[in-house]
């Protein structure tokens, strides 16, 4: 599933999470840190992955989660979220940038809603 993550979505997440670090909001700060554009919050990516999965699996409930961030994902780019479900309630997710680079990998445990 491909999702465009806009600079506006990053800004809204920054305000809601109170993580308003310049690297997420300013091209200049991102450039000073060696990045081409502001960087998407890792926790935003993890929450988005969970939301996307649950939107297609409304009967499920997430009981735990973990994600490893491998490379930055930049604001105003498209991210591909790929989910693989396994027996026992484990779901693995891979997040890939437009460049084809894997930017994050993780997993969460799911069970049927109570």
UniProtKB/TrEMBL annotation:
Gene3D superfamilies: Hotdog Thioesterase (3.10.129.10). Residues 3-94 form the MaoC-like domain. Pfam families: MaoC_dehydratas. GO terms for molecular function: (3R)-hydroxyacyl-[acyl-carrier-protein] dehydratase activity. InterPro entries: HotDog_dom_sf (IPR029069), MaoC-like_dom (IPR002539), UPF0336/Enoyl-CoA_hydratase (IPR050965). It comes from the Bacteria. GO terms for biological process: fatty acid biosynthetic process. This is MaoC-like domain-containing protein.
């Amino acid at each position: 599933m491909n999702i465009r993550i806009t600079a506006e979505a990053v800004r809204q997440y920054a305000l809601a999470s109170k993580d308003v670090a310049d690297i997420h909001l300013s091209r200049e700060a991102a450039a000073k840190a060696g990045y081409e554009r502001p960087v998407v919050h890792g926790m935003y990516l993890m929450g988005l992955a969970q939301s996307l999965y649950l939107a297609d699996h409304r009967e499920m409930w997430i009981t735990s989660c973990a994600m490893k961030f491998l490379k930055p994902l930049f604001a105003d780019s498209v991210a591909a979220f790929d989910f693989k479900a396994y027996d026992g309630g484990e779901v693995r997710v891979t997040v890939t940038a437009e460049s084809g680079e894997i930017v994050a990998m993780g997993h969460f445990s799911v069970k049927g809603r109570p």
